[in-house]
Amino acid sequence: MRIEVLTLFPEIFSSPLEHSILGKALQKGLLNVNVRNIRDYAFDKHRQVDDRPFGGGSGMLMKPEPLAAAIDAVRGEVPGIRVILLTPQGTLFDQAKAGELASLESMALICGRYEGVDERIRKHWVDEELSIGDYVLSGGEFAALVVIDVIARLLPGVLGDKESCVEESFSDGLLEYPQYTRPRNFKGYEVPEILLSGNHEAIRKWRRREALKRTLERRPDLLDFSVLSHEEKKFIEELKSGKRVAGSN
Ligand code: 6GU
Q1: Which domains, ranges and CATH numbers included, belong to the chain?
Q2: Ligand 1 pocket test, candidate residues 87, 97, 128, 141, most atoms within 8 A of CB
Q3: What does pTM read for this prediction?
């Protein structure tokens, strides 16, 4: 996959793209990220990239000319590229959206500043607008990094076998079950007995139920989209009605 990033702050991207899973994905060539400075497409004397809004009001807007020139250049170099503007006004970027984007050959991520971009860019130069959640960032750069990281994890070859197991358990739509590593007793706090039992079927069941409990407690909205067996639905109903108490099985 090829990702073109358009930003006024290209330096923000260097470290996050050098390390860990993203760093390896880039090194292996499974993913290509090219970061461009929008200011390089400002052709007036002062290379101005922002301006005051018509009609008044506080804050500056991104001027249309440099953005349009940058997007036109990217489209010229990468035919068919999907152009995405990162903005708090976009539709929500979630795991399902990530899955959809992961199948593209190329996309351009335009990092807006939060006061916004000229409406004509949104309407006529951009294919889609995405937000990563209900809060306001100072700019789209961190949002772009979130999008890149989430999508990279879905590309073939990026995750090793061990890591992709973990991935599967969120893609079933539930929160993770609790996990423990050594020591068995940490400052008086014990690891649940069942995990030491060696009974793989019992452990699998326990984990599934813990994931259901945690999801019901913290993110009941996710249960509407998860695929549950008849038995699991019954378990959830029992939890809700108080027949089962949190912490017990
Ligand atoms: Cl994509 N940009 C900005 N500036 N703020 C955000 C966002 C994006 N998503 C959530 N908040």
Answers
A1: 2-152 (3.40.1280.10), 169-241 (1.10.1270.20)
A2: 87
A3: 0.94
